Model the fold of this input.
Amino acid sequence: MPKTEYKARHILVPTEEAAQAALKQIQGGAKFEDIAKKVSIDGSKEQGGDLGWFAPGQMVKPFADAVQGLQKGQMTQAPVKTDFGYHLIQLEDTRPIEIPPFEQVKDRLGPMAQQRQLRDYVDNLRKTAKVEIKLPEGPSAASTPPSSAGGLETPKP
Done:
């Protein structure tokens, strides 16, 4: 479990050129949140790019790595590319993650473990499954449509 949570803002744009243009505006004295409201393409746009508090595992790896490399108040000096587009990231604050006491979470651990076991079991079944589809042989079988009873014919009186 990570030991630190991060509070950050970001600007997300579709191209590196748009990210560089936003970066130049900020370096020229514009406020990060004002530029985010103008050009960002994600849901945090209305909040000036504010993402709130998050753990690194909640973000895609390039984004999380960039945030963890910043100091409070610092902004990425180059756009960060992810599958979503190009980000400029400004780290506002960090805080230690408080791990809840065992007594507080023990009732949730059993169902979480069962869910993980089930997911692993299903994943393993998918990896090892061999599916074969056998079609009926012969020229009449290919031209005969299946009946509405799932391929079974009902006897005629």
Summary: The chain has a mean pLDDT of 88. The chain has five helices and four strands. The helical segments are 16-27, 32-39, 61-68, 102-128, 139-143. Strands lie at 4-13, 50-54, 80-82, 85-96.
